[in-house]
Amino acid sequence: MNKALVIGGSRGIGKAIASSLSSIGYDVITTSKQELDTSDLSSVKNFVKNNMEVDILVLNTGGPPAKEFLSISEEEWMKYHNQLFLGFCMILQKIKINDGGYVFLITSSVIKEPNPRLIISSAYRSAFASVFKILSRSYAEKNISFINIAPGLINTDRTKELIDNIEEYQKSLPMKRLGEPKEIGDFVKSIVENKIKYLSGVVISFDGANSNFVF
Amino acid sequence: MNKALVIGGSRGIGKAIASSLSSIGYDVITTSKQELDTSDLSSVKNFVKNNMEVDILVLNTGGPPAKEFLSISEEEWMKYHNQLFLGFCMILQKIKINDGGYVFLITSSVIKEPNPRLIISSAYRSAFASVFKILSRSYAEKNISFINIAPGLINTDRTKELIDNIEEYQKSLPMKRLGEPKEIGDFVKSIVENKIKYLSGVVISFDGANSNFVF
Amino acid sequence: MNKALVIGGSRGIGKAIASSLSSIGYDVITTSKQELDTSDLSSVKNFVKNNMEVDILVLNTGGPPAKEFLSISEEEWMKYHNQLFLGFCMILQKIKINDGGYVFLITSSVIKEPNPRLIISSAYRSAFASVFKILSRSYAEKNISFINIAPGLINTDRTKELIDNIEEYQKSLPMKRLGEPKEIGDFVKSIVENKIKYLSGVVISFDGANSNFVF
Amino acid sequence: MNKALVIGGSRGIGKAIASSLSSIGYDVITTSKQELDTSDLSSVKNFVKNNMEVDILVLNTGGPPAKEFLSISEEEWMKYHNQLFLGFCMILQKIKINDGGYVFLITSSVIKEPNPRLIISSAYRSAFASVFKILSRSYAEKNISFINIAPGLINTDRTKELIDNIEEYQKSLPMKRLGEPKEIGDFVKSIVENKIKYLSGVVISFDGANSNFVF
């Protein structure tokens, strides 16, 4: 049975992906923050030491709190550098992806259109997007696809924390609604189920026509 | 029964999409160049006058020949302006997309990384990508998703015309192969079948990790 | 004496560039719309037939009117295709740029962030930006730099036509003001005066920190 | 007398900028790695504690060594995170930029087109480009321009370390040569000298027409 590891798979988008991969017969391991906290490198090292091999890896983590630039402390930069960047690097350095597999990365629309309130997330997710792009090339030879999904506003607990009046806010969006985690889960499932491999090294903005850039 | 119109659906990527939409129960109308030649505006006007309504529209057309900038004549600019840009505009001005529907546009990786040999294609496909982006916003209110798929090198007759020694050429690609039309057909099918709607207003580069830009 | 040709040099940004190039000793020829109307191909053909040679070419033209997509006629598409794209192509096919020279293109921030009201401009300026990028490569061997300047809201008659209450509008901009044509004129002058050649094949967004994309 | 601080100003591009700013009358303070090592946070903290105020700040630093992803250690990630990202954040949190001033950031073409050999640089420079973009908005109100210059291959000691046979390599570049540090120095000088302020929040690729993306 094929194996998938979904980091941050206990809620939100990660949970939806875990659930959709289960529905097509994958043996899905999810980690919650209690089991693997990428902001804590000793947790990461402990996790990767068992030499895991997977067919699908989903790199996903909650975002840092909204903070103004001037108020961000050295400790906070360090912590979220671990959480959003270094932890993922260490995981990719250690976990083996089987030939023909997939690595999905869940970032955010802020990688292309940075957001002042989400400056930490904008910065470190961009950094990891860069690493991810580079790795897509070397893994391509083993027929492993690297797909970076950059969601806009999705209906998760996280979004509810960030936006005060969501009912009102939704009306300002092109589709008059937030995206649903299930849409992303289904998207991932579709790629895998149909063995679509040539989609690799790319960012899939998933934002309900809300971005400003043409490409 | 839901209706799909696939322009340029008689071969290559268009044919693969038509076939995949048929497989999930769509009533698919395809047009070959003989039935609808977007480089000929009278053909376009004739085609759109029957007030068609569709659930899915796939805007797809073959590319112009490889030509050096200095050798392109006024007539050629005009012809391919019609084929790759104006014909599609006139179709979108006239054909009704039903609420909850989809419009897929097949462009090319040259919209982001222009190619000297494909200068006509690079230019006019970029132009239409811009129109397409703008329209994604207004159609979003009707829950219609606009998805621009930008393929890299796909295994079609077109690619065989453009590249001399494909066997050799493939070895230079990250995945050591061209993409298959079926991968794009399956991708389109998956989006539709799973009713993924929040993917809109975006370009999906479909190039086997071959592009240079990070996003 | 070195020669510069500034198309659309009778007002706005073109005039500011013409004036700044004069100030550093260039023999500047400007064309107004009466002398060279790029929307009229016979005007373009007439203009280019004298086999002009220049050291600096500035491709600049006014924008089309704000129009909704559905209301744009075939004739309008054609006219602005000439004005914003084909006329410039024909000029570049015929006018010789001397070795070590410059070609400046004045586009708009809408090439990266298309604007629904300026859909014609967004589309055709994008198309020409693609041609311009491609040509930057071939001209590089002759030490000719191609620089695409993409202004945001600049204090010109054009902007006053497009925006109702400019006083109020300016307050919404990051710098609380429009850009000045002179800033772009000075920018062009500086590049030329300092013989900066390695800046080529790039888009210089000139928008007072108003764009959303990171790059 | 106006004051400029050029970090990493003892050689290469930093030195050229320092020299060009001196030539137009700025009181230029440069720091070498011995005086301010952004990879060492105690060095940064020591440096910023004197509450410096400047009119122009140039954020510039050497790049990390070329390393394969799998061989990068935790300590190396941490060190270069400091050098290319966190040190600069701490400097911007503490040093006051006078109203009407400038902040220049020297990054690299790898922020848009990541390079496998320069994966550390690609990642952390991208991250800081994101912070820089966000800050350009808030500083705009004080008429302070933020300009990110992303050089391609420039004729510096660094480039000589990275490329084996530069003579041969240059022939593969569109301009058949590396860029000169002086071109970037002159570019910075021109912006400042002409008080061009509306150029802000943007990336200036400075790569001799060598990039692949259109924008």
Please characterize this protein's 3D structure.
Four copies of one chain form a homotetramer. By secondary structure, chain A is an alpha/beta fold. Chain A is 40% helix and 19% strand. The first copy, chain A, has seven helices and six strands. A six-stranded parallel β-sheet of chain A has the order 2-1-3-4-5-6, sandwiched between helices. In chain A, helix 4 (119-140) links the parallel strand 4 (96-106) and strand 5.
**Poorly predicted sequence stretches spanning 5 or more consecutive residues of chain A:** none
Query: How many distinct helices of chain A?
Result: 7
Number of strands of chain A: 6
The proportion of strand residues of chain A reads: 15-25%
- For the termini of chain A, the CA-CA separation is 38 Å
Helix content of chain A: 40-55%
Encode the helix/strand succession of chain A as letters: EHEHEHEHEHHHE
Structural class of chain A: alpha/beta
Query: Which oligomeric form is depicted?
Result: homotetramer
Dominant shape of chain A: globular
Main-sheet strand order of chain A equals 2-1-3-4-5-6
Major β-sheet profile of chain A: 6 strands, parallel
Which protein chains are joined by the largest interface, and how many residues does each one contribute? A-B, 47 and 48 residues
- Computed over alpha carbons, the radius of gyration of chain A is 17 Å
Mean pLDDT of chain A: 96
